Write a sequence for this structure.
């Protein structure tokens, strides 16, 4: 058995990196230049600008500012409030993603069955996802209002002690309430993706498992779930990013309150920038968010590679 | 070789080019003769926009050669827009602002003095006595940097039938307010609405109670000394928490829309809130408005309530300062000014004596519909104030909801009023110490 490097079967080996290679690739470079320019304009330059701002004491209140090194970051790390917000952001993300996937999976399993009115339910279940966030926020604030909300009236008959709960202003209830609304809104989308995945599960394998005596749960665990594994991992990453960056739902319902109990990093960044007028400090927060997301992505891809290698 | 078509083509081309050139020349001269001023407006209500458009048409008719470009930017964005405009050299020629934002802009040295406009209006004596504290707020070293435009203040709103049914008078003191709130909290009705959300509503209510107890956030001479942790503030926090017992449990999360909706349910007996609620109640219908009365905020050891306001400003770096000043003078002309006031008399209180005395204002159906509210506002305006003023960081204090956060900690988290006031004072000190 030879360990010699493989040769290009169609001719002599290409000399990549030298002038000939460069000339050959010129057209390619030219073709990707517009894309790179757009990326630079829309992503890299703003990103560098934010990184640069985070090293200055720039505010909206003054036209003059100076370089302060890592002072904005030091102030951030020294504040106990920052870590509480980071932990809350991670909690918000973890609970939202896990519940969105579980609820989405249950809905997908239900809609994967053959029954009359399936198409209608598929459309109905998707509704929360297609409603604009601002409408979702208004609807839920109205439903859960303790004075004139519909939920209060219903709960008065079912669980009277819950009828006048302050869903958005009780410090213990606000975050779980928001997570529940977020799950209500996000689950239909995970449902659609997982439903597409469920339809690729080979029927012959399910049939074989059934003949071997596997019940529904065993079929799901040993046949369906392994087939959905890659889709689930992608959904987990994408939804982790979506949820971590969620700003609109939280801001429109509680603005991070009560007492910062629903304050996450995106809302805090907005508050520091546009209410506190601190461009430098908010840029440091934004960079911190970016680092956390990069770490999350790195962990995910590492995990993905390990699981792929182990197959 | 002679080509008749070629000659014809030349003539056709000439015939096309000459009119085009003439149009271009005309447009160039027109552009040179015309000045366009940018006027930024954060008050984007439909009625306000209608009046502003009418004013612009009238002004342009009166001043041929000057055009006004009305740019509507909501309050949430306008401060950032001013700052980016200042940094890039593209400031508007004139703008509507608030006293707090005006103080910040003035501290940056970017505002054009308003003394000449006020001189043309008849000097400081043109302002009504009720606008005294507002006028003081717009001055620095004896000169005006803002032009006071309209103002209002927080009042005590009450549901007439609930008080009448209980045989209770409108409360005038803190003790009476507490007793009334307690007496009216029964059978699904809450005596008073006390929000503790991190919102302007909470700030307006709490700051009004602070003033009615003789407390304040900073000193009114320099705006540099923090007074927030005074015994009077601590007492106000305790009182606020006491009143909150008679408020709906979810009021901790109410912002303006929920608070206004709560008032229209008929389940709230009283609410310490801005006179601008009158606009929303008027929109809901005259029968809704008629259910409510307004009175001065009950007092304890002081007098006063939070003042909402609009001011007019021009910028030193404006391209057309003279024309912008002419436009502001036009807006302050009594007939135009009264027209603006009548768009929402509960929200837009006059600052000039001429407008108050003008029968077109005082005898109008719009004013008569909210007469009670206007009377309560007028009674309180001399003692009304904007929190954080005269600190140039008043706008930040407002935006960051610092005092609402303090209220939330006391009401929702049971932090001691003393501790919460001290922490709040430290936060305020940190903000106003920034350069």
């Amino acid at each position: 058995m030879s360990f010699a490097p493989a040769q290009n079967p169609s001719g002599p080996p290409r000399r990549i990196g030298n002038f000939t290679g460069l000339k050959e690739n010129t057209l390619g470079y030219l073709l990707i230049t517009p894309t790179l320019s757009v990326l630079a304009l829309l992503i890299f330059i703003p990103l560098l600008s934010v990184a640069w701002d985070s090293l200055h004491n720039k505010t909206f209140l003054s036209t003059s500012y100076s370089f302060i090194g890592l002072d904005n970051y030091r102030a951030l790390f020294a504040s106990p409030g920052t870590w509480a917000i980071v932990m809350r952001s991670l909690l918000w993300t973890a609970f939202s993603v896990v519940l969105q996937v579980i609820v989405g999976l249950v809905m997908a399993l239900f809609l994967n069955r053959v029954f009359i009115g399936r198409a209608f339910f598929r459309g109905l279940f998707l509704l929360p996802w297609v409603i604009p966030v601002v409408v979702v926020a208004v609807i839920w604030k109205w439903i859960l209002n303790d004075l004139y909300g519909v939920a209060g009236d219903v709960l008065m008959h079912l669980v009277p002690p819950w009828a006048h709960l302050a869903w958005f202003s009780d410090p213990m209830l606000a975050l779980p309430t928001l997570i529940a609304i977020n799950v209500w809104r996000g689950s239909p989308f995970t449902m659609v993706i997982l439903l597409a995945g469920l339809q690729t599960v080979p029927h012959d394998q399910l049939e074989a498992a059934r003949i071997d005596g596997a019940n529904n749960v065993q079929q799901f665990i040993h046949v369906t779930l392994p087939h959905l594994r890659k889709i689930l991992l992608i959904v987990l990453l994408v939804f982790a990013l979506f949820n971590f960056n969620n700003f609109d739902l939280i801001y429109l319902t509680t603005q991070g309150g009560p007492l910062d109990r629903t304050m996450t990093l995106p809302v805090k960044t907005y508050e520091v920038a546009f209410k506190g007028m601190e461009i430098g400090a908010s840029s440091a927060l934004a960079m911190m968010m970016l680092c956390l997301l990069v770490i999350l992505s790195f962990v995910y891809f590492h995990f993905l590679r390990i699981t792929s290698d182990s197959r | 070789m002679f080509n008749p078509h070629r000659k014809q083509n030349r003539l056709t081309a000439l015939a096309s080019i000459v009119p085009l050139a003439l149009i271009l020349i005309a447009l160039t001269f027109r552009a040179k003769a015309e000045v366009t001023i940018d006027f930024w407006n954060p008050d984007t209500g439909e009625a306000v926009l209608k009046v502003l458009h009418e004013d612009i048409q009238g002004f342009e008719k009166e001043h041929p050669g000057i055009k006004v470009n009305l740019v509507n930017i909501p309050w949430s964005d306008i401060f950032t827009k001013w700052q980016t405009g200042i940094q890039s050299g593209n400031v508007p020629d004139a703008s509507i602002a608030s006293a707090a934002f005006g103080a910040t802009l003035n501290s940056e040295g970017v505002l054009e003095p308003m003394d000449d406009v006020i001189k043309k209006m008849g000097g400081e004596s043109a302002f009504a006595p009720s606008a005294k504290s507002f006028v003081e707020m717009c001055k620095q070293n004896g000169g005006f940097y803002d032009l006071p435009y309209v103002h209002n203040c927080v009042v005590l709103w009450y549901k007439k039938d609930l008080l009448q049914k209980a045989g209770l008078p409108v409360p005038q003191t803190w003790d009476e307010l507490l007793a009334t709130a307690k007496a009216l909290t029964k059978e699904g009705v809450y005596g008073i609405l006390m929000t503790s959300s991190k919102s302007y509503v909470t700030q307006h209510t709490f700051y009004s109670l602070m003033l009615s107890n003789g407390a304040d956030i900073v000193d009114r001479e320099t705006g540099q000394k923090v007074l927030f942790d005074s015994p009077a503030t601590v007492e106000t926090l305790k009182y606020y928490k006491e009143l909150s017992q008679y408020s709906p449990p979810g009021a901790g999360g109410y912002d303006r829309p929920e608070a206004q909706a709560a008032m229209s349910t008929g389940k709230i007996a009283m609410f310490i809130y801005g006179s601008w609620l009158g606009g929303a109640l008027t929109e809901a219908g005259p029968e809704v408005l008629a259910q409510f009365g307004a009175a001065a905020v009950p007092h304890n050891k002081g007098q006063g309530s939070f003042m909402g306001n609009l001011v007019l400003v021009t910028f030193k770096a404006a391209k057309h300062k003279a024309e912008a000043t002419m436009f502001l003078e036009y807006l302050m002309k009594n007939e135009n000014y009264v027209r603006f006031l009548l768009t929402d008399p509960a929200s837009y209180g006059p600052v000039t004596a001429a407008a108050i005395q003008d029968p077109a204002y005082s005898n109008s159906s719009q004013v008569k519909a909210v007469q009670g509210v206007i009377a309560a506002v007028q009674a309180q305006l001399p003692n009304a104030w904007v929190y954080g003023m005269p600190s140039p960081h008043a706008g930040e204090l407002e935006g960051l909801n610092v005092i609402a956060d303090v209220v939330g900690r006391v009401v929702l988290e049971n932090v001691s009023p003393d501790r919460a006031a001290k922490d709040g004072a430290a936060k305020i000190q940190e903000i106003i110490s920034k350069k």
Notes: Chain B has two domains: 32-152+308-382, 153-307+386-432.
